[in-house]
Design goal:
Elements (H helix, E strand, L loop, with lengths): L3 E7 L18 H6 L4 E3 L2 E2 L5 H10 L3 H4 L6 E3 L5 H7 L3 E6 L2 H4 L11 E3 L12 H8 L4 H9 L4 H16 L14 H13 L5 E7 L17 H10 L5 H4 L5 H6 L1 H24 L6 E6 L5 E5 L6 E4 L6 H4 L3 E4 L7 E3 L3 E2 L3 H9 L14 E5 L4 H7 L13 E8 L2 E8 L2 E7 L5 E4 L3 H11 L9 E3 L8 H9 L4
Parallel strand pairs: 1-7, 1-8, 2-12, 3-13, 5-6, 5-7
Antiparallel strand pairs: 2-11, 4-19, 8-11, 9-10, 14-15, 15-16, 16-17, 17-18
């Protein structure tokens, strides 16, 4: 029997801050409960260090250096996303997120979904959405949008949506917080659950919660570890990454934001509870592959494992604070807990989803036959432009970092290379790792050997670039730190 497929990406959540993985702050009480009838992978890694590269790997099963989709200038060729394949097999498909890489930007990730629910922070969601209109008609088509609004069922509300979107780009300080802030997880949980209720056959969905992505804005009920002081620090910062790397702000301020980050994780965990319990009440949970994970982690000033900088946020770091992610999987029919400590990779998601579609999914499916591979690409031109306001030396943030994880003598060993450097670590868990001495030549040889067969798969074509997106989408990408 074909099973449903639910992929939940807790964007920017690192394994280190998940209480399921030993973090002392109780950020994920539901995940800890859910683990009693699911499989916990304690050594899971994201394929890349940022949303676009990792999501493309998760959707296609291709390592970052095989698909090479790294910016808005790239686009995934049709036919390579697992969601496209499931749709062709008769699955209803839907994606629910304000992450514009998977819902708006023309990089090919949204093409596998019949239903696409993107950013919702407009005044009237029931009227025309200028972001969707401009995505089809092109940027700057203000007169055409006005005509379409006047000819639609709710002209006044549609025009106000257009005005709010334009203001959000040009004059954001004129808008209330409700129209500038991120859309919380409960909105997308509602959208998914409403969509799921309407399905009569098998379905495959991706929910991407952005609560733990900058800016960190948990509602009061979950803001247990940050508080008004941390919010004030965040509100006064011009940038949440480069001001620290450039020395314009002290690192203690970056660390002070971690309490807000923890609250955002707890906020998403509560919505996970609601989703899972509702699916259980509807008698579909047992027939669903549920994958809860993250596309990458987040840095709060930790020293880099290989570069002479600290880690702030994410994007280019190969360090475990960015690449070690939670992975909790409930396989169809699973009722007992399982724990897998071998290195696992999210590039195995398509295989697990297809196995579920064939009624053959089983624990262990995220562990590859060979080592786990991770690639963190350097800054692209758009990000260099943003960073140039704060830093002069780009060298620590360019060149691709590589990591290879394997089990050796019972230990999880991580070999990493970046530029002419090579280092080895033993990773005990999400909280504990340490460097071990080994000849750099041997480390480099092992990494190069593991990547020897990782060649371009020819799945990339030219994209529209940032300039080909709507004003609202460009503003959202800027807010998220991607341009």
């Amino acid at each position: 029997m074909a099973s449903n497929v639910l992929l939940v990406v807790l964007d920017s959540v690192r394994a280190r801050n998940v209480s399921l993985g030993g973090y002392p702050t109780d950020t994920t009480p539901f995940c800890s409960e859910f683990a009693e009838r699911a499989t916990t992978y304690t050594q899971a890694r994201s394929p890349g260090a940022k949303s676009l590269t990792s999501h493309t790997s998760i959707f296609t099963g291709l390592d970052v250096e095989r698909h090479n989709i790294t910016s808005a200038d790239d686009r995934l060729e049709p036919g390579f996303s697992v969601f496209e394949g499931l749709r062709e097999e008769g699955y209803a498909t839907g994606v629910f997120s304000e992450n514009t890489w998977v819902t708006d930007v023309e990089v090919g990730l949204k093409d596998g979904f019949d239903t696409v629910e993107g950013p919702r922070n407009i005044p009237f969601p029931d009227a025309a959405d200028p972001k969707s209109f401009v995505a089809e008609a092109g940027r700057g088509q203000y007169v055409e949008y006005l005509r379409a609004s006047l000819g639609g069922p709710k002209p006044a509300r549609s025009i106000l949506n257009g005005l709010a979107t334009k203001l959000a780009w040009d004059y954001p300080w004129l808008l209330p917080d409700s129209l500038q802030a991120s859309t919380a997880a409960d909105v997308y949980a509602d959208l998914f659950l409403d969509w799921e209720r309407e399905q009569s056959g098998p379905w495959a969905a991706c929910i991407n919660f952005m609560d733990a992505h900058i800016p960190y804005e948990p509602v009061d009920a979950f803001d247990r570890w940050g508080g008004p002081e941390a919010r004030e620090i965040q509100d006064e910062l011009r940038d949440l990454k480069w001001v620290f790397l450039g020395g314009q702000e002290p690192w203690w301020k970056r660390r002070a934001l971690e309490g807000l980050y923890d609250g955002a994780i707890a906020q998403m965990d509560a919505q996970l509870r609601r989703i899972v319990e509702t699916l259980d009440e509807r008698d579909v949970l047992d027939d669903t592959l549920v994958v809860i994970t993250s596309d990458h982690g987040e840095g709060f000033g930790e020293p880099s494992e290989i570069r002479d900088v600290r880690v702030a946020e994410h994007g280019v770091a190969i360090d475990d604070v960015v690449t070690h992610v939670p992975l909790l999987v409930k396989y169809p029919g699973q009722t007992e807990a399982g724990t897998i400590s071998e290195p696992a990779t999210l590039t195995r998601f398509p295989d697990a989803a297809r196995a579920a579609a064939d009624g053959e999914a089983e624990p262990g499916s995220f562990v590859p036959e060979g080592p786990v591979l991770v690639s963190a690409v350097g800054l692209n031109e758009a990000l260099r432009g943003r960073a140039a306001d704060y830093i002069d030396d780009f060298e620590p943030f360019t060149a691709t970092g590589r990591a290879v994880l394997r089990v050796e003598d019972g230990d999880v060993v991580k070999d990493i290379t970046w530029r002419d450097r090579a280092r080895r670590f033993v990773v005990r868990d999400a909280q504990t790792s340490y460097r071990v001495e080994a000849p750099e030549a041997a480390i480099r040889s092992r990494v190069e050997s593991a990547f020897e067969d990782v060649t371009d798969a020819g799945v990339r074509t030219g994209g529209a670039g940032v300039e080909g997106t709507s004003d609202a989408t460009r503003k959202r990408l800027e807010d998220l730190g991607y341009v």
